[in-house]
Specification:
It comes from uncultured Stenotrophomonas sp. Belongs to the LysR transcriptional regulatory family. InterPro entries: LysR-type_TF_proteobact-type, LysR_HTH_N, LysR_subst-bd, WH-like_DNA-bd_sf, WH_DNA-bd_sf. One of its GO terms (biological process) is DNA-templated transcription. GO terms for molecular function: carbonate dehydratase activity; DNA-binding transcription factor activity; sequence-specific DNA binding. The chain is α/β, with parallel strands linked by helices. It folds into 3 domains: 16-106, Arc Repressor Mutant, subunit A (Orthogonal Bundle), CATH 1.10.10; 113-179 and 289-317, Periplasmic binding protein-like II (D-Maltodextrin-Binding Protein, domain 2), CATH 3.40.190.10; 185-286, D-Maltodextrin-Binding Protein, domain 2, CATH 3.40.190. The protein is 42% helix and 20% strand. It is built from 10 helices and 14 strands. It has a 5-stranded mixed β-sheet with strand order 4-3-5-14-6, covered by helices on one side. The chain has a 3-stranded antiparallel β-sheet with strand order 12-7-13. A hairpin with a 4-residue loop joins strand 1 and strand 2 (77-79). Helix 1 crosses helix 3 (51-65) and helix 2 (40-47) crosses helix 3.
C-alpha cells in the first residue's frame, strides 16, 4: 500500500512548509535588499537590522536553494547568474505585494499619500513639469514628489518610475501612453542675427547659416525635421555650435550666435518676449506629441491617479501652441484679403 503521508510533514511532527516559509521569507527580503543596495551593510540599514543578520538570512536562503546568489569580495557584492535569475523571478511578486499594500493604505486612509517618482526630459521637466509641483503639493500635501530629469527613456519598472513624460511613445507594451498636447518644432533666430545675416527661405539655404546643433545621449547629432512638398525630410545641417542641452541651444540662439530648431514649448517664452523670431514655418513638420506614460496596472495607487489627472488638466490648459502653421496663416490671410473684382 502506498504511503498517504502529507508531503510537507516533517519527521519530528513540525510542518515543514511553515519552517520553509519562515526561512525563505526572511531570506528573500534580505536578498532583495542586498541586490538593490549592492551591500550587506546598506541592506541592513534599509531593513533596520544588523549586517550579520542579513548575511545569515541570505546564507540560509542559499543553502535552501542549493545555489550561490552573490559573489562577495572585500570591496564589492554582485549577483551571480543564478542570483540574477532568482531576482527576476522574485520581482513581479514583490511588486504585486507592494502595490497591494499601497492600494490598501490608500483605500483605508483616504487622501492620496506616499512617494511619487516622475521622469521627464530636461527641457520639458524644467519648463512644464517643475512649475506644476508646488500647486500639486498644496492640493495633495501627503504626497512627496521626486522629479528626475533624463534624456534617456526610462525603464518604468526597473527604475521605479510612476509617471514619465516623453516626447513620443515608449517602446514597451506594458506602458500606457496618452498624448497630452502636440509638439511643434520651430526654427528660431534672434532679431539681431536676422538683421545681420538674414533668414533662410528654404531648407537648402540652411547651408549658408550658422546652425546650432544638439548632441543626443547616444552620441549622434539630432537631425532637423521638415516637410517639403508633402514629404518628410530630415537633413543634418553643418553646425557652428553643438550642445548636449536644449536650454544652452536656446540661449545661444537668443545671444545671436546662430539658428536652431527647437520644440515650441522651449521657445514659447522667448517668442512671446520677442527675443527670437521664427523662420521656415511653411516647412514645419507634422506635429509630434508630448506623452504621459505609466505602467499598465489594474488599479493605480491614488497618488499616481491624482497626479495623472492633475498634470493632464494643467498641461492641456497651457498655451504651448505659440506658432500657427504656415498653411493656417495663409488661409487666414486669404480670408481677410479684400475680394478682387472680376475684371482686375
Amino acid at each position: 500500500m502506498k504511503s498517504t503521508s502529507q508531503p510537507f510533514a516533517a519527521a519530528d511532527g513540525r510542518d515543514s512548509l511553515n519552517a520553509s516559509f519562515s526561512t525563505s521569507y526572511a531570506g528573500v527580503l534580505a536578498f532583495i535588499a542586498v541586490a538593490a543596495e549592492g551591500s550587506f551593510a546598506r541592506a541592513g540599514d534599509r531593513l533596520g537590522i544588523g549586517r550579520s543578520a542579513v548575511s545569515r538570512s541570505v546564507r540560509k536562503l542559499e543553502d535552501q536553494l542549493g545555489v550561490r546568489l552573490f559573489l562577495r569580495t572585500t570591496r564589492s557584492t554582485s549577483l551571480t547568474g543564478e542570483g540574477e535569475l532568482f531576482l527576476e523571478g522574485c520581482s513581479p511578486g514583490v511588486d504585486c505585494i507592494l502595490q497591494a499594500l499601497d492600494e490598501m493604505r490608500d483605500l483605508r486612509d483616504g487622501p492620496p499619500r506616499g512617494h511619487l517618482r516622475i521622469s521627464a526630459t530636461h527641457g520639458f521637466g524644467r519648463r512644464v513639469i517643475a512649475p506644476l509641483l508646488a500647486d500639486f503639493r498644496d492640493e495633495y500635501p501627503e504626497v512627496s514628489v521626486e522629479l528626475l530629469l533624463d534624456e534617456q527613456a526610462p525603464d518604468l519598472a526597473a527604475d521605479r518610475i510612476d509617471v514619465a513624460f516623453r516626447d513620443g511613445l515608449l517602446e514597451d507594451s506594458q506602458v500606457i501612453a496618452k498624448q497630452l498636447v502636440p509638439m511643434q518644432l520651430v526654427v528660431c533666430a534672434a532679431p539681431d542675427y536676422a538683421r545681420a545675416r538674414g533668414l533662410p527661405a528654404s531648407v537648402e539655404e540652411l547651408a549658408a547659416h550658422a546652425c546650432i546643433g544638439r548632441r543626443l545621449p547616444g552620441g549622434r547629432l539630432q537631425r532637423w525635421d521638415f516637410r517639403v512638398d508633402g514629404d518628410a525630410v530630415s537633413p543634418q545641417p553643418a553646425t557652428a555650435l553643438v550642445f548636449n542641452d536644449g536650454d544652452l541651444v536656446l540661449q545661444a540662439v537668443v545671444d545671436g550666435l546662430g539658428i536652431a530648431q527647437l520644440p515650441s514649448y522651449q521657445a514659447c517664452e522667448a517668442l512671446r518676449a520677442g527675443t527670437v523670431v521664427t523662420c521656415l514655418d511653411r516647412y514645419a513638420p507634422h506635429d509630434r506629441g508630448h506623452y504621459l506614460c505609466y505602467l499598465s496596472r489594474r488599479q493605480l495607487p491614488r497618488r499616481i491617479r491624482a497626479f495623472i489627472d492633475f498634470s493632464t488638466q494643467r498641461i492641456r490648459a497651457l498655451d504651448l501652441d505659440v506658432v500657427s502653421h504656415w498653411e493656417a496663416r495663409q488661409q487666414a490671410a486669404a480670408r481677410e484679403a479684400p475680394a478682387q473684382p472680376a475684371w482686375a
